[in-house]
Design goal:
Layout lengths: L26 H8 L8 E5 L5 H8 L4 E5 L3 H14 L3 E4 L3 H5 L6 E7 L7 H14 E12 L8 H13 L7 H17 L3 H5 L3 H9 L3 H8 L9 H9 L4 E5 L13 H8 L4 H12 L3 E7 L7 H10 L1 E4 L9 E4 L2 E4 L2 H11 L5 E2 H7 L7 H13 L3 E3 L3 H21 L8 E4 L4 E4 L2 H11 L5 H14 L5 E2 L2 E2 L3 H18 L1 H6 L4
Parallel strand pairs: 1-2, 1-4, 2-3, 4-5
Antiparallel strand pairs: 5-7, 6-7, 8-11, 8-12, 9-10, 13-14, 15-16
Helix pairs in contact: 2-3, 3-18, 6-7, 7-9, 18-19, 19-20, 20-21
């Protein structure tokens, strides 16, 4: 009997997550900051798309044609359902990488892989690299994220032990979730004996405690595949060399802010390293990097200083947070840092109306605030990095995408009648997904159906919950009476009207 899983967990579905770093619209700001030319994106591909939420949102919310594959047929079936609902230009398959690579496919401006690189065999890695070599256009961008060393170095033996327990000790037929729970319980008991390994690696126990709190669907795919290979940055570079790729920059905007990630001594040490690739390797040791999110490019071309500055000034932005809720804090490798109020507060106050503005327009509006252009760009990177601001695509793309995002969002909101699995909707403004919880999705659905007041939205949701015998859980306990449930829904609806609805309107979701 053929094992079509190749050692990958297939008896439990992946989570319904959305990963904003896969959005090609984020590439432009990162490349401009790095002084690199970014391509115009017309064709894109995601390898190992899981449930396909990211692929479908990016297809619906942009003018790109998207292709992709995930070998799990149940996940591919769900992804195809979403593609049919949106009517977007998305072609999603349930094929292994080697089979997909043999398809008659276009060349791509963008190829994305989120996490999957760490969970597959060297044979599949070779197939992917060959696919990138053949199918990524000159000037095209690869987004790839992966578990890395040294951050996973101390935990790798413990992960191996947990996987061995699940395979050898875990009872056949009980399912992966029970085997995961059994492996975690066993590991805690082992650590309670105070083994020398734990004494030499004191952070392992804390990581096990955090893992126990995580979604079992996520854990199954993150830790319990046969293949699990954290990789040094230098090793990744060796893999991608044959595909003619050059490292461009991090896809995590907060990595660009040295002050929150590196001490002054570390910054000075890195400045003396002139090889950019080796500098990345050394930096990983400084921050004990566990997970890298990267852009690579097939043929890096540099912008002139004038082109870079003009490109940055042309970048359009929209605020995707409620201004009173924004805290002037940011977390980097060094921990939490306080943002400079005289720089960040004027930017946030200006953008609080959720109107779209270019960096140039922000600069002009704040010309009397004594904010330098360099300070403004760093503020933009930090605020985009923590989700307060989002890059916005041009009006032509937004108009074309809205038809598809409306259809996709309606389909997702109807699913929210009975499930809270999916907590995202698609925006034609940002070209990607936005976090929107179940009740908030149902409030939007109520508005679509002509209900204008928070009281009406709450009643709409209350009726849906009552029809299924569902109750709101507050402080860990279900609210028993209809009156209690209605009061809780009313509070949420009024908060939604003030905090989220203006944002969703600006993003053309509501």
């Amino acid at each position: 009997m053929t094992d079509w899983t190749s050692g990958y967990v297939a008896d439990i579905g992946y989570t319904y997550g959305y990963y904003l770093e896969l959005n090609p619209q984020r590439v432009k700001l990162a490349f401009l900051n790095a002084g690199l030319v970014a391509p115009e994106f017309g064709t894109a591909c995601e390898l190992g798309f899981g449930q396909g939420l990211s692929a479908n949102m990016h297809a619906a919310a942009s003018v790109c044609s998207w292709h992709g594959t995930d070998f799990n047929p149940a996940q591919a079936g769900f992804a195809q359902e979403l593609a049919t609902a949106s009517g977007a230009n998305a072609h999603l398959f349930d094929e292994a990488f080697a089979e997909f690579a043999n398809r008659d496919l276009p060349e791509f401006d963008y190829i994305g892989l989120h996490g999957i690189w760490s969970w597959i065999s060297d044979e599949n890695r070779a197939v992917i690299v060959d696919f990138i070599r053949k199918k990524l256009k000159v000037g095209g961008v690869l987004y790839i994220s992966y578990n890395t060393l040294p951050g996973w170095g101390s935990f790798a033996p413990m992960r191996h032990l947990m996987t061995e327990h699940a395979q050898i000790i875990g009872a056949d037929g009980v399912g992966i979730v029970s085997r995961i729970d059994g492996a975690l319980d066993f590991t805690e008991k082992l650590l309670a004996t105070n083994p020398r390994f734990a004494r030499a690696n004191p952070l392992v126990a804390d990581r096990i405690s955090k893992i126990k709190e995580q979604n079992r669907h996520y854990l199954a795919h993150e830790y319990f595949n046969r293949d699990w290979h954290p990789m040094h940055f230098g090793t990744m570079a060796e893999w991608l060399e044959s595909a003619k790729l050059t490292y461009a920059c991090s896809a995590n905007y907060l990595d660009y802010v040295d002050a929150v990630n590196l001490t002054p001594e570390q910054q000075a040490f890195l400045k003396d390293i002139h090889d950019p690739m080796f500098k990345q390797t050394v930096r990983d040791f400084m921050v004990n990097q566990q997970f890298r999110k990267e852009y690579w490019v097939k043929g890096a071309r540099r912008l002139t200083p004038l082109e870079q500055t003009q490109g940055l000034r042309d970048q359009r932005l929209v605020m995707t947070a409620h201004r009173p809720d924004v805290v002037l804090k940011v977390t980097g490798a060094l921990g939490e840092a306080t943002l400079t109020e005289k720089v960040y507060a004027p930017v946030l106050d200006l953008m609080a109306d959720h109107k779209m503005r270019s960096v140039s327009q922000i600069e002009q509006a704040l010309k009397d605030a004594s904010i330098t252009f360099a300070q403004l760009i760093q503020a933009v990177l930090v605020l985009c990095g923590n989700g307060t601001l989002s890059a916005a695509q041009d009006d032509t793309a937004t108009i074309k995408a809205k038809e598809h995002t409306d259809k996709l969002n309606t389909h997702l909101m109807l699913k929210a009648h009975s499930s809270n699995d999916i907590s995202y909707l698609a925006s034609p403004v940002t070209g990607g997904g936005v976090g929107v919880g179940r009740f908030q999705q149902l409030f939007v659905l109520a508005i679509q159906q002509g209900k204008k007041k928070p009281e009406d939205w709450a009643a709409f949701v209350a009726q849906i919950l009552a029809s299924q015998g569902q109750k709101i859980v507050k402080e860990g306990k279900p609210l028993e009476t209809p009156e209690e449930n209605m009061t809780a829904l009313m509070a949420q609806a009024h908060e939604f009207a003030v905090k989220q609805l203006p944002i969703l309107k600006a993003l053309q979701i509501a």
